[in-house]
Design goal:
single chain; 201 residues; mainly alpha; Hypothetical protein af1432; elongated
């Protein structure tokens, strides 16, 4: 067997040493996630979709405002990456961003990212004949106040082409630390994993 690749044709043929090899590669791949995420963030640069700034500038500006408002590092990373799904699925971008961040952040922050699009609608839904107060259905949720703050103080305010936005380099170490955490609190070793969905996906 090659030292870098398993040779089974289906899982029934796989040997423990092959799963150990795959697990090593998987851990390396997870560790490289910050670089790939930041590379994808750069794809938001260019097309402004009619907004005063493009989505890349908007993302940096949202993170800059969160930082200057005293947000903690995890929240700042959430602010930076909250629209990262726009490139792949504009109609469902919040769900994609939440999916990327969820293994590494507080569940309430993941909920915030997943619902920020609806909460943001407080500022524009009425222009489309929709209820701007739709977010009130979640008023009893423990993440409601933080999601309101995220949208009202940082997200909806970050379309100013004259704002002194910090460069991406300022946030790279934060992204590396947050996305460098053990996903969901830890990756089990192969011997402890059992029927582990992470390798079987």
């Amino acid at each position: 067997m090659s030292q870098s690749q398993a040779h089974f044709r289906h899982f029934g043929e796989a040997r423990p040493e092959e799963w150990a090899l795959i697990d090593d590669h998987f851990r390396d791949y997870v560790a490289d996630a910050p670089r790939r995420v930041l590379e994808h963030l750069n794809r938001l640069s260019g097309d402004n979709h009619g907004y005063p700034v493009d989505r890349y500038e908007h993302s940096l500006q949202t993170a800059t405002r969160a930082l200057r408002d005293g947000a903690d590092e995890e929240m700042i990373v959430c602010a930076l990456l909250h629209d990262i799904g726009d490139d792949l699925s504009p109609a469902n971008h919040a769900e994609i961003a939440a999916g990327i961040l969820e293994p590494f952040i507080d569940p309430l922050n993941a909920w915030m990212i997943r619902h920020h699009e609806l909460f943001q609608g407080y500022h524009y839904r009425h222009f489309f004949g929709l209820d701007p107060h739709a977010r009130e259905q979640f008023s009893d949720h423990p993440a409601y106040e933080r999601t309101v703050r995220f949208c009202d103080r940082w997200d909806q305010a970050s379309f100013d082409p004259d704002y002194d936005t910090l460069p991406l380099s300022h946030f790279v170490p934060m992204v590396e630390r947050v996305l460098g955490r053990e996903p969901f609190g830890g990756l089990p070793a192969v011997s402890d994993a059992g029927d582990n969905e992470k390798e079987g996906a």
